[in-house]
């Protein structure tokens, strides 16, 4: 009877594991999960949601976000050809077996990332849009901060092992919602079931597509260090959620846990009107998550009446270095003046008043750039120069127009006092970064 009891207990445990039960989640130290209502931002379930984990190929969600940014801005098209370097071709599987010297279209690269999770295509994209893989990773991290992903750092575009490349379940849920909201036109790629390239058919690694009602993407990921990861977007019966499972022991248990979360929490999601959960500041600038998102502490910039004209400029050499590194075709027209002169001449934002009070928070501005890519890269470079004073604030870009040309302010938001903002500027100026403070 004792032996039979052990057998029964073992079978029961196996059933729980296959069903994705709580036993599997709680017993796994790598596990993290979150379910968010995609209409309201309400967190319906979370477990270790802010614990840093390795994203593995969930990284490609941000790679694709930046591709979609470039498509939306008209800097590239789906037919633009991406060259394949020796470095990109050497990336280990999974891949598309790309060869040095060949090229693929942007759309082929997108399909390759969504279905095959192709590492060679991811690196080719990074080198094409960022000028180098390292530069593109800086752009990814800067965009993550802009979206309120405060605990995420990217070091590559594919998600292959790097001890410094980390994220959280909450940050990945935010990225999933940002992809849906900001790039609805291109989000459909995530529901692709298969893709044929060079006479080979590649199926989507997301096993829940077509198997669970309403699942329309987003991305899987796996390395030995990360375990099995999955971000899912689900829309059914007027409800919508984004769910994250990280650190699964096997792909089967990960999928079972995701299916369980969808079944248990989908019914608690709102059936109300869709709400934009990613704030867009006046003038079209895209900022971090609105305060309705749990865990977000990013103040939203607002326009203020102009009090006095400020002369602001970005250091000339860093700007040139950043601009040279951005290899983006079909860029928008740029002003004829050097960036340093343009920034000084066109940015009309006022200085902060000298009075006390920090109502609305304080912001520092470090540059004005003719392209968002340059602004994001400059923010990333600035963050590296002063990581301590900028640790608790978030980099954003804001647009404004002058003479028919759109410019992008590079700013850090979230200082809680005048002294903190001015102190940060003082530190940055010692490192040859021009800076001024603005009270929101």
UniProtKB/TrEMBL annotation:
The UniProt record lists the keyword DNA-binding: no
GO molecular function: peptidoglycan binding; serine-type D-Ala-D-Ala carboxypeptidase activity
Domain SPOR as annotated: residue spans: 356-440
Protein name (database record): Peptidase S11, D-alanyl-D-alanine carboxypeptidase 1
Active-site residues from the entry: 57 (acyl-ester intermediate), 60 (proton acceptor), 117
Record flagged with keyword Hydrolase: yes
Signal peptide range: none
């Amino acid at each position: 009877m004792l032996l039979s009891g052990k057998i029964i207990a073992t079978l029961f445990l196996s059933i729980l594991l296959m069903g994705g039960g709580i036993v599997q989640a709680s017993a796994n130290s790598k596990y993290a999960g979150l379910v968010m209502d995609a209409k309201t931002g309400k967190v319906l379930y979370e477990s270790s949601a802010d614990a840093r984990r390795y994203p593995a190929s969930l990284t490609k969600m941000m790679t694709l976000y930046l591709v979609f940014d470039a498509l939306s801005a008209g800097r590239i098209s789906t037919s633009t050809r991406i060259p394949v370097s020796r470095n990109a071709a050497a990336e280990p599987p999974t891949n598309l077996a790309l060869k040095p010297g060949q090229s693929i279209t942007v759309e082929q690269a997108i399909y390759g990332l969504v279905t095959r999770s192709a590492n060679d295509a991811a690196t080719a994209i990074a080198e094409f849009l960022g000028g180098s893989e390292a530069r593109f990773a800086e752009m990814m991290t800067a965009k993550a901060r802009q979206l309120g992903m405060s605990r995420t750092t990217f070091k590559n575009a594919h998600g292959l092992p790097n001890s410094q490349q980390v994220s959280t379940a909450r940050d990945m849920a935010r990225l999933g919602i940002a992809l849906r909201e900001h790039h609805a036109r291109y989000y459909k790629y995530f529901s692709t079931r298969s893709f044929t390239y060079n006479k080979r058919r590649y199926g989507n690694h997301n096993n829940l597509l077509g198997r669970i009602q309403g699942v329309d993407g987003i991305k899987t990921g796996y390395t030995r260090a990360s375990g099995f990861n999955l971000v899912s977007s689900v829309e059914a019966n007027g409800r919508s959620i984004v769910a994250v499972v990280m650190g699964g022991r096997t792909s089967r248990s990960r999928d079972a846990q995701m299916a369980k979360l969808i079944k248990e929490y989908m019914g608690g999601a709102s059936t109300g009107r869709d709400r934009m959960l990613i704030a867009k500041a006046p003038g079209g600038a895209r900022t971090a998550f609105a305060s309705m998102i749990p865990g977000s502490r990013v103040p939203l910039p607002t326009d203020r009446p102009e009090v006095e004209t400020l002369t602001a400029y970005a250091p000339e050499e860093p700007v040139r270095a950043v601009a040279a590194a951005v290899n983006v075709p079909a860029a928008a027209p740029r002003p004829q003046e050097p960036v340093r002169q343009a920034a000084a001449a066109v940015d009309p934002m006022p200085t902060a008043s000298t009075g006390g009070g920090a109502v609305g928070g304080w912001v520092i501005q470090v540059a004005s750039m003719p392209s968002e890519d340059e602004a994001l890269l400059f923010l990333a470079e600035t963050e590296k120069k002063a990581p301590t004073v900028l640790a608790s604030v978030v980099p954003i870009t804001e647009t404004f127009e002058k003479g028919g040309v759109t410019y992008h302010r590079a700013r850090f938001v979230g200082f809680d006092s005048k002294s903190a903002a001015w102190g940060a500027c003082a530190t940055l100026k010692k490192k040859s970064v021009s800076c001024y403070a603005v009270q929101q």
